[in-house]
Amino acid sequence: MINVIGYHTTKFGEQWNKSLFDLISEAIHGVIKEMKIDKEEINAVFFGNMLAGILENNVHGGSKISEILKTHVPMYRVEAACASGGLAFNLACQYLNANKNSTVLVVGGEKMTDYPTPKVITALSAAASGEEQEAGLTFPGLYAMLARIYLHTYGYTEEHLAAVSVKNHFHGTFNDKAQFQKEISIEDVLKSPYIADPLKVLDASPISDGASAILVTNNRHIAHRIDKKMTVLSSQAATDSISLSGRAYLDRLDSTVQAGNKAFSDAKLSPIDISVAEVHDCFSIAEILAMEDLGFFKKGEGGERMKNYETMFGKTNGLVVNTSGGLKASGHPVGATGVKQIGEVFLQLTQQAGKRQVKKIKYGLTHNVGGSGGTAVVNIFSS
Predict the structure, then answer these.
(1) Is residue 123 assigned to a domain?
(2) In principle, which of 13, 81, 334, 358 could form an S-S bond with 370, CB 3.0–4.6 Å?
(3) Which residues sit opposite 209 in a β-bridge?
(4) From CA 109, how far away is CA 111, in angstroms rounded?
(5) Distance from CA of residue 271 to its chain's centroid?
(6) Run of H or E including 237
(7) pLDDT in tens, 165-183
(8) Which residues, 6 or more positions from 250, have their beta carbon under 8 angstroms from its beta carbon?
(9) Which pLDDT does position 266 carry in this prediction?
(10) Which residues cross the membrane (predicted)?
(11) Cβ distance 210 to 348 under 8 Å?
């Protein structure tokens, strides 16, 4: 049995006075201190990061973490674009399945705000295909194409997209680690400037700094001494064509469908069993697609059900989605996102989520996407 036994995150946002490894050190030492784990009990570290090699000319971050921890255990740096943190956790689970009585640290981090926005956008575009980059496409443009196809196919409007941002900003008001802690309205979203029609500034997640860390173990003696923990029922990853032109469909992400189906089958659960989920909302359309691709909504129903705020905290007795504020309000320091998602579900399932605590929950899910769907990781947990 694999258990998540601890979580710590920095605040997400513009961390001008901290470097990438200041943030990573804060997250690592935070979780070790809170869980009263001796660093000698950690057998390996999995580090999710996308941009340090491009923005900071540093691709050997694992060794820096070794320096921070003053340890010689194996360090694995994992890169899968915006799914780097989620895939780091997936690989950590595989490590634990192969190594009995082990404990690992999974940490994700990114430092993005120190650099000019055009440089960051170019760096993020490295997660797209060469052909898409040569055509001048950035991720707002790629997701705008998905949004335009979805709206046209199912007869929705930009208001349906805007409802996603309204919900997640509302959730962000309950999270003191979120980048944005202010409610917004449909009108606010619709009045914000277009970045790639039909997507606007308030349809998009921000450029962010931050780091998150979790401790994961299959050591029964360590797990036994921890009161608050959650069990990993499944961790599944899937891939798809990096280019939109290579996809069979453009109103869904097949990597999410594949990873989700495998996770539910492995966990022996169905979408109706899930009470809380963190899904990848890098743009408003991404959350709508995720909810359909994971089976929470039927195909084509996502727009209307989002506009009805069916997954908003305090307005439903069923599934609540992105209680952290999602990428949209909590922030999106790329390598940290997948780890923070797991940490948020950990807080929920261990009744530590404070003002945003969902009641009567047993199962939670996280969904982390790389690029425009080239990689997806879906994890399912129980209390």
Answers:
(1) no
(2) 81
(3) 13
(4) 7
(5) 18
(6) strand 230-239
(7) 999 999 999 999 999 999 9
(8) 145, 146, 149, 244
(9) 98
(10) none
(11) no
Residue 129 is assigned to a structural domain of this protein: no
Residue 317 has pLDDT above 90, yes or no: no
| pLDDT classification of 130: cutoffs 50, 70, 90 | very high
Mean pLDDT along residues 352-374: 97
Give the C-alpha separation, 287 to 180, whole Å: 18
Residue 147 sits in the same domain as residue 33: no
- Domain span at residue 173? 136-205+232-382
Picking from 94, 105, 91, the residue whose alpha carbon sits closest to that of residue 43 is 105
Task: Compute the C-alpha angle 149/153/159, nearest 5°.
Answer: 75
Q: Are 338 and 87 a contacting pair, CB within 8 Å?
A: yes
- State the burial class of residue 71 (Cβ atoms within 10 Å of its Cβ: 0-12, 13-18, 19+): middle
Residue 130 is assigned to a structural domain of this protein: no
* Known catalytic membership, residue 82: yes
60 is catalytic: no
Name, in order, each residue with C-beta under 8 angstroms of 108's C-beta and a sequence gap of 6 or more: 47, 48, 49, 84, 85, 88, 211, 212, 213, 333, 335, 336, 337, 338, 339, 340
Query: Does the structure show a pLDDT above 90 at 42?
Result: yes
Catalytic residue among 160, 280, 332, 367: 332
| Residue the block writes with tokens 């809170």 | 34
Task: State both tokens at 96.
Answer: 């634990």
pLDDT at 315 (0 to 100): 86
The one catalytic residue among 82, 93, 160, 280: 82
For the segment 322-350, the average pLDDT, to the nearest whole number, is: 98
**Is the same domain home to 184 and 224?**
no
| pTM summary value | 0.97
3-state helix, strand, coil in the chain (%, to 5): 45, 20, 35
